[in-house]
Amino acid sequence: MISRNEEYKLQVTSSRFQGFRSKVLNFKAKGPATCNLPRHVGVTRRLKLATRFTVGRLPFAVSRFLIAYCLLPIALLFTGCYSFKDIGSIPQEVKTFRVNYIENRARYINPQLSPQITDKLRQKITGQTRLTGVQTDDAHYDINGQITGYTVTTAGISNQQAATQRLTVTVHLNFKNNLDQTKNFEADVSRNFDYSANLTISQAEAQLNETIIKNVVDEIFNRIFSNW
Q1: Which residues, 6+ apart, have CB-to-CB distance to 168 below 8 Å?
Q2: Does 123 lie in the same domain as 66?
Q3: pLDDT band at 83 (very low <50, low <70, confident <90, very high)
Q4: Which residues face 185 on adjacent strands?
Q5: 117 and 168 belong to one structural domain
Q6: In the chain, fewer beta carbons within 10 Å around the N or the C end?
Q7: What is the pLDDT of residue 13?
């Protein structure tokens, strides 16, 4: 059995709850500016309610704009990470290519260069164009090249001593377009690679090998497909 005193307390509590509930419902309907919540409702709770109901009452067009505005930086980030060079100038009739073995004819021969440059160039053309690699004489694009330069010079001096050495790799490129002979050309492409003078050439090659291969292949690729 509930005593009269306890029954009275339950009635008061229920009445207060119903009053608070009606004020919250009024807050939903009219917005935060026209509703006075009880004093015991904290500031944090008031802000949460105001934010929730205000955003919920925004027009659909405004909500869509806010979502698009928030997603824009993410879209730009991925666009920057996955951008490719414009190689859309390849004529539609060109379907195949051949990369012949890039021979090393430099005075100093790095045995890693020829096989790696040849292989990486084939992979890059296959991966970033629609062309199909073949090993026949009737390839539409026929690519030949020789490593003609592999030289080391001093690039920086400190306290009258060499501080930085520069390795220059040069490839002579011979490009043939078997569908349009007027597009044939020969050109030299080269890249510089600096390293500490405290390293021997063998140590520098070990550190720079991947960078050398990637940059030289990029130079050849750009010269053929971007005409840089």
Answers
A1: 149, 150, 151, 152, 153, 190, 191, 192, 193
A2: no
A3: very low
A4: 175
A5: yes
A6: N
A7: 54
Q: Give residue 9's pLDDT.
A: 54
Which tokens sit at 203? 């140590």
- Judging by DSSP bridges, how do beta strands 141-158 and 161-177 pair with one another? antiparallel
Which residues span the domain enclosing 157?
96-225
Residue 211 has pLDDT above 80, yes or no: yes
C-alpha span between 134 and 142 (Å, rounded): 10
pTM of the complete model = 0.61
Give yes or no for residue 183 having a pLDDT over 90: yes
| Residues 61 and 167 placed together within one structural domain of the fold | no
88 domain-assigned? no
Q: What is d(CA 74, CA 29) in angstroms, rounded to the nearest whole number?
A: 35
Q: How far apart, in whole angstroms, are the C-alpha atoms of residue 171 and residue 227?
A: 16
- What's the chain's average pLDDT? 78
Query: How many residues does this entry show for the chain?
Result: 228
Burial 77-105 (b: 16+ CB within 10 A, else e): eeeeeeeeeebeebeeebeebbbeebebe
E-strand stretches of the chain: 96-99, 103-104, 132-133, 141-158, 161-177, 185-196
